Amino acid sequence: PRPDIAPPALGVVEAGLWRLLQELGISADMAAGHSYGEFVALFAAGHIDFPTLISLSEARGRFSVEAAASAGSELGSMAMVQAPRALVEASISHLPDVLVANHNAPEQSIISGSQAGIASALQAFQAAGLNASAIPVAAAFHSPFVAPAQSLLAAAIEAANWQPGSMPVYSNTTAALHSQ
User: Fold this and answer.
1) What is the DSSP string of 72-100?
2) Taking the mean position of all CA atoms in its chain, how far away is CA 103?
3) Is the pTM of this model over 0.85?
4) How far apart are CA 44 and CA 29, in angstroms?
5) Is 178 considered catalytic here?
6) In the predicted model, is pLDDT for residue 79 greater than 50?
7) Cα gap 147→154, rounded to integer Å
8) What is the C-alpha to C-alpha distance for residues 129 and 86, in angstroms, rounded to an integer?
């Protein structure tokens, strides 16, 4: 998938689902979103409007690709592993370009890294009888592969039109409240 297209499309779907919930009379007391979902949580809380959501979504995808390309690196990949985090970390410790990107649940981790590293990790997990599969993503998110995009995205976020929100939004990196 093209990372400059997928996030805006996801944002449109999630924003549409939020609007549907509102039309059904369902409201929320607080919001949070993981990774890209934090933008949608900020939209749902009224901190950003829909055009800003789409603009930041497109910028996130574009910056990830452009920054990796300008650094001369590949975009990488990601995979899901059904196993305790300690076992996942031990299993990938010999792969220098693969890391645990997300610890989603006690028995599920997401790994991120180079295409070759993820392929090697998947082979090892599957040989050990663990449920592991590639995730169809455009880049190795939450890893050094997309780190060059961070300052560009931070500048776009800073330049966005922010508004006071209607409900608290918790950060997915610090668990602290975003400022109202």
Assistant:
1) T----EEEEEES-HHHHHHHHTT-TTEEE
2) 13
3) no
4) 11
5) no
6) yes
7) 11
8) 16
> Is 142 one of the annotated active-site residues of the chain?
yes
Question: What's the pLDDT band for 148 if we cut at 50, 70, 90?
Answer: confident
> Tokens at residue 44, please?
């749902």
The catalytic residue among 55, 142, 143, 178 is 142
Rounded alpha-carbon distances, angstroms, from residue 45 to 35, 72, 137: 16, 38, 27
In contact, 60 and 49? CB cutoff 8 Å = no
Taking the C-alpha atoms of residue 56 and residue 17, their distance in angstroms, rounded to an integer, is 19
122, 77 Cβ separation under 8 angstroms: no
Contact 148, 71 (CB under 8 A): yes
pLDDT in tens, 6-44: 556 777 888 889 999 999 999 999 999 888 889 999 999
Catalytic residue among 35, 73, 120, 166: 35
